[in-house]
Amino acid sequence: MKNYIKVDEWKIIEEGFDAHHHQVSESIFSLGNGRMGQRANFEEAYSGETLPGNYVAGVYYPDKTRVGWWKNGYPEYFAKVLNAANWTIIDIVLDGEQLDLAKCNVTSFRRELNMKEGYLKRTFTAKTASGKEVSVEACRFCSMVDDETAAIHYAITPLNFSGTITITPAIDGDVVNKDSNYDEKFWDELGKANQPGGGYIVMRTKKTGFEVATGMKFSISQNGETIQPKTETISKEKYIASKIELQAQQGQSISIIKYIANLSSQNHKPEALVASLTATLDRISLKGFDTMLAEQAAAWAEKWKHNDIIIEGDESAQQAIRFNIFQLNQTYTGEDDRLNIGPKGFTGEKYGGSTYWDTEAYCVPFYLATAPQKVTRNLLLYRYKQLGKAIENAALLGFKNGAALYPMVTMDGTECHNEWEITFEEIHRNGAIAYAIFNYVRYTADEAYLADYGFEVLIAIARFWSQRVSWSQDKQQYVMLGVTGPNEYENNVNNNWYTSMLAVWCMKYTMEVAGKVKIANKAKYDALAARIGLDEATEFSRFGHIVENMYLGHDEKQGIFLQQDGYLDKEQILVKDLPATDRPLNQKWSWDRILRSCYIKQADVLQGIYFFEDDYDIDTIRRNFDYYEPRTVHESSLSPCVHAILAAKLGDEARAYEFYLRTARLDLDDYNNDTEDGCHITSMAGTWMAVVEGFGGMRVRDGKLLFQPFIPEKWASFSFHIGFRGALLNIKVSKEGVQIKNLSDVATTVFVYGKDQLVKANDELLVEA
Ligand code: BGC
């Protein structure tokens, strides 16, 4: 755990340079705009430990799978989002001596991520080995308005000398992925051009053939005046640069504005890439840095209007929640249904930038409430478009008749996770995808989605479940053998309650949706049924039989759902009784020991109870919570938020707050010592859930928003924005009660503390606690 980030409501601030923090900061101060993003690497050269990272959403490479023992059905490759051309570089040389903070005496240093306006700023003064002292101010951003563009303003002032300063802005396409399986380089150069004032390179990915053109255009000024300096262009393989030598006067600043465009063949015809790139660079350089930055601030202001959370009385919590919301918005904007949310977003390489069940289980609630409806719809469409591959994936494993198994990890719909316990067994992800459809329709009332897309996905998933269960002669019930639940600290278990319960629910829900779609649009239903060869009588009767006769483990004595067969045989020593030195288990214990233990990585039974809370009475929820939580080590960042929400539901405000604290500053304080790999983007949505669904008690019930809030003791008030069926609400919870402001022209009725409250358009009301 670290504690070097300064607390501020709207900014993330690092003061003083400590090379040990640098890679953590490179993650925390990352920038993105949904289309591209980058780690907060320095512009000038840095010879210390660094993880350069520049990513273009959706541009990936199928890296051949590497496993010890090949098993049939393994995916051929692990897709990974590619480290792409580095466009940040502005190399600085002072009278022949390179400016490199790893080799300087850094006398002052401040890095600041301005979350309100969406930019990264860095200022420092440093003395080189030979005693030359400079001050630097650098500011950059990835434009939210024009998501193929970015800009950097870099100003340097010699403080104690006059001499030659050489500035070399560059684009380097010769980059590698740290996680490359065979130390391969994934890009080939396709072309480049370089002239004084700017240039570009076009790179093509091996195998997948994505083309990405990255270009720069720059202007230089000295002492406030734009100049046209002599420039030496440098072109090497996969690299372009412009070397500019300037005579600098002590105390007078030199600055460069570097405009960047990053275009990919996903959005442009390959033959038009260069022309579009040039036009984009011309457009933004004409607009100018200041205008771009002003537009950036306005775009962020608009975002914050819809999704800010304001916490009064706790600045550190305020900073943390904004950081989570900020990073989520930088990662995914919902403009493009081919894109998704990697667990690390654009902040690192871990998890390959691929899509996990995290999206459906954790991110969907955030985007549903804080972004236009189409954003979540696009997340669902992403999976709809990959249905064919999910069916192929299931067929590869021996399933038939259009059964679909969505991948645990994917970029384009193909499974690319290579641990059999996860690829073959962590099948509960299929359930989360069905649940997201249910959640979306419950929230938005967009029933048409079911007829157009949702039902087709549901039927394929239900078909999978109906084939994945088997009939136990012994039990005279259906069972689900050989699975891994969300608790990845146990593999190949039988009758994981969460997975089986979700399977039953999917089949039930699919039949219910079939009924709805048939009534709403019989012609569409018939056409789809014919296309997918639905034999309703036979298939639905099997679904129904499974629903009625599925084995769902339950322990009568303790009144709990059984996580899986045999769980109670394990030695039951609670987490609190483990020596602190044994934790985290995944770093301290052998895998064998973990598998045999009772310790649960993340919400499993409780994940199911969270999804279907209305199906269980409060005593059942309490018994399961009281049993499973003390056995949970929360070694996935996705875990605490579910526990925070359930603790809040159970009225345990102190524990709800305690769980919330474990997620809120996870990356800012490098809680798990792993932020240098990237930020935990998908679990940031969980932090939002802990505030809104936990403390705010927000639910959707019977087509209405329900709030049952409480306020953490330390806080004076908290408020959040929620979009719901055309209405935009600001909900402020304080000791007095709940104030609801309707910021839209759509009246809505909300259910607060057990009573309906009509909130008229552009009106507000206070419901006393
Ligand atoms: C969790 C999974 C999650 C993955 C990516 C793992 O540690 O156990 O549930 O999908 O991380 O976030």
Shape: globular
Helix content: 25-40%
How many alpha or pi helices?
20
- On the 0 to 100 scale, the average pLDDT is 96
CATH topology of the domain at 11-64 and 78-289: Beta-galactosidase, Chain A, domain 5
Unreliable stretches (pLDDT < 50, length at least 5) are: none
CATH architecture identity of the domain at 11-64 and 78-289: Distorted Sandwich
Estimate what percentage of residues fall within beta strands: 25-35%
What is the alpha-carbon Rg in Å? 27 Å
Q: Biggest sheet: strands, sense, closure?
A: 11 strands, antiparallel
**How far apart are the termini?**
37 Å
What structural category characterises the helix and strand content? alpha+beta
Mind telling me the CATH class of the domain at 11-64 and 78-289? Mainly Beta
CATH homologous superfamily label of the domain at 11-64 and 78-289: Glycoside hydrolase, family 65, N-terminal domain
Count of individual beta strands: 33
Q: Hetero groups bound?
A: beta-D-glucopyranose
